[in-house]
Write a structure and sequence with these properties.
This protein has about 425 residues and is α/β, with parallel strands linked by helices. Helix content is about 40%, strand content about 15%. The strands form 2 sheets. Strands 4, 5, 6, 7, 8, 9, 10, 11, 12 and 13 form a 10-stranded mixed β-sheet that branches. Strands 1-2-3 form a 3-stranded antiparallel β-sheet, sandwiched between helices. Bound molecules: magnesium ion (MG).
Length: about 425
Amino acid sequence: MVARPCAWSVYRNRAPRRRQLFRAKRAMGACRGNGWRVAMPANYNGPRQPGTPLFPPARAMKITDVEALHLRIPGVEEIADGTQDVLIVRVHTDSGLVGIGEVSSQSYVCKAIIEAPRSAERRHGLREIVVGQPAEDIDALWQRMYLHTNRYGRRGAAIHAISGVDLALWDLRGKALGQPVYQLWGARDPAPIRAYASYLFGDTPDETLRLAREARELGLTAVKFGWGPFGADADVDRDHVAAARRGVGDDCELMVDAGCKWDAPTALERARLLAPFRLAWLEEPLSQDDLKGYGELCPQSPLPIAAGEGEVTRYGFAELIERGVHVLQPDVAICGGLSVCREVSQMCRAAGRRAVPHCFSTGVNLAASLHWMAATGGDLVEYCLRPSPLLRKLVSNLPPLVAGRVSVPRGPGLGIELDDAVIEQYRVR
Ligand SMILES: [Mg+2]
């Protein structure tokens, strides 16, 4: 004789099926309040209950492949120009949607990190780690990549490569929901973001003056100078910064990048010397690993100190905040992606610091940085002016610089389109 189930177990077994049916009908566009006949808005997902998936069943996506496309212009030079080669990441899903990301690092190494086969525990390639996984829970996927690359990762190139996948996952989520990334993070109708451009100091102060005037003619209201002859001699440094200030005028934010040239005592002397020029920040005065030096310099410096363009993970940025760094500069294509940038913005808000993107590669990086700033109340983005086709042409709808500001892309996801002809022309095979 078969025992009859009690009333509670019948309810318990049937209720999930009713909920599934409701969600399936809702995903097809039906609405209970009108006898399931009236179509609901295409983007409406209903109130999300704890424990339910982010997407209704009809939109759930599984990752089917991760492509790493290495693009490189001919004649790459050993100069501080990240637009000469790039690793583009494309995450494919069984829904047909494809997410786009970018890695700004050693492209050959990061391509290998993505494509490496399964190995012993915690030393797999990223493609092996994410293929077959649902695409919607980005935080879970980030933690999965971080954990399963643990033996060779945690910092450096493995996190750079994770950045590319993370950007592609955010692009995918936006495309699946028909919303730009900034909207996924709660922002609506963002105003164009103010931009700054980076220039090398001229060989002479007169050349620096000319470059500074050129920057203002572009409509920029924030300009950064760095590298070149700067850093070796205090008088030369003061003359160049004086020329830059004269060229951009008093109503322009002026920043200086010291290129990691000093120790903490020298940096403090220079900060005091340059204080009359009212720099918005003095960038990377010390080695990226001189955390003790940052801890000594930051509380005493009369100028805000900026750092972090090469830093990765929330742990690295938490350390910089702890040492007193005033302006944090994550690069979305280096630090671990938009997921890490959002955390850094939250930490900066809590600690009274400023987050400003480092962005010196392609339009993928620029678009992601714009979404990040738009959604977190950021007020500045770096706008690269290099002539490389990987910057100017790879993203066919590259947001232009207009009157010193850049509009945030409005399309779903990152809101960008890649030019297939540019990919074919510069792809390394
Ligand atoms: Mg820099």
